[in-house]
Amino acid sequence: MVNLDPLQTTSYHYELPAELIATHPIHPRDHARLLVYNRTDRSITHTRFDALESFLPKNCGIIFNDTKVIKARIYGKKESGGAIELLINRPHDAHAINVYIKGRVKEGTLLHFDEELSARVIKLHDDGSREVNFYHRDSLIRFEELLPILERVGHIPLPPYLGREDNSEDEREYQSVFAHYEGAVAAPTASLHFTDELYAAVCSAHPHAFVTLHVGSGTFKPVEAKIITDHPMHSEYFDISPSTQVLIHSDIPLLSIGTTPTRTVEYHVRTQETQGEANLFLHPNNPPKRINHLLTNFHLPQSTLLMLVASFVGLEETHRIYKEAIDEKYRFFSYGDAMLIL
Questions:
Q1: pLDDT tens by residue, 13-43
Q2: Residue 90 host element (H or E)
Q3: On the chain, which terminus has fewer CB atoms closer than 10 Å, C or N?
């Protein structure tokens, strides 16, 4: 490592052998490996995910993200006949939907999909995203009316680094067993390791609550600025129920199941907002204030998610943990293995 300045983006680079990228889920879900890192003595323990409960502090509460992944990728054609691929990112309002489109388009371009679904480009953004209105049988439709159509014509939006098309297995496996509210275009991946049985066991042993954060495709956006604080952090819709607020504002330690509930809770603690758009960027110079423990997967180099991990354990320890995970041949990224930070 050339530089270990926590504000330098290059400090978060590491080399990952391509064969350690998990391209398919493991069966059963809770047979993924689990690296347990204890901040008190900096110890690392290697175990399996189904042993999770034996490592959890007895008095901790647990925060889950109950967002549900939608079939956000659709394939269609322009009126000219040219093929296009559209990835829904997030609704801007009931009718204006922020998307990414593979294929050249301009304002006014009309795109056609199966089942008499169409979309008209209404705005081009500097970040490469597009704003569109969707129509069904030529009638303008709202985002919630679009969702059941996507369920029939769309595809699971697998992360680009998986390097493959989605299949029927992904419809089951790229979704948590407690997914409820539709809107995410990427799974909260730490959640994917829970079976129904393990989820029930953990919930019976700990106070628990849910936030909803609809994960956007911005979660995969690499940090391109040289200084991490110059990175324009993406925002995502969140909602925190009154019962969840009670747990957040209690005095018991909290375990977050993933980076997305972490950012949601920490955004709420800083702003007191309970619904809206969260864009909090956690890193070593902006560490968590409320979340005590983190369960997460292994993340992309130079990503905001890796920087969030470093906000818990520091940059040097992040590199040490990741080096050991690579040496031990853990599986990385969305379908990969997990890490528990205590």
A1: 999 999 999 999 999 999 999 999 999 999 9
A2: strand 83-91
A3: N
